[in-house]
Amino acid sequence: FLDGLDELRNDRGRHLSQLLPILEEWHCHVIISARPYGFEQWRALFGRSDCRLLRLAPLSTNQRLQLIDKWFAASTKRLTSVNLKKTLTHNASLQLLAQNPLLLCLLCWIAERYSVDWDITRTHLYQLIIPCLLGVSIIDRTQVDSTRGSQLSSVMSDVAIKWLRANEGKQ
Fold this sequence. Notes:
Structural class: mainly alpha
Oligomer: single chain
Number of helices: 8
């Protein structure tokens, strides 16, 4: 499984074109993931008849509700499941976000830790997610150290700003 083809720099295409024949010799299935726009720039490498392009379908409303129910099935926070489902019915932005299974799982994860109001914005949700992800304990992955997460979030903000400035105007 090779994830993030869309994040591969243009000058690395040579490496990818060298890797594919090696993988072919292994006689195994290979899954390469990318956002649609990222796939387009590498399409020529995958023009063979045995390569198939598949697109992840958005979760249906019923699938979203089932995922939420399963997420909270063993939880003591069953009311959170009900509130989250109500939130999704009132918030069009979150409905779009919840079509993606990974983002819906992140939303459930955040809903376990915080009160998620029906008018929460995607931006606010991301502001909650990032420190939590950065604060996940190295020793016990079920625990979140919010102080560590906030400190790392601050550092990462500085790194991101410097990176954006250094790469301004580059594609």
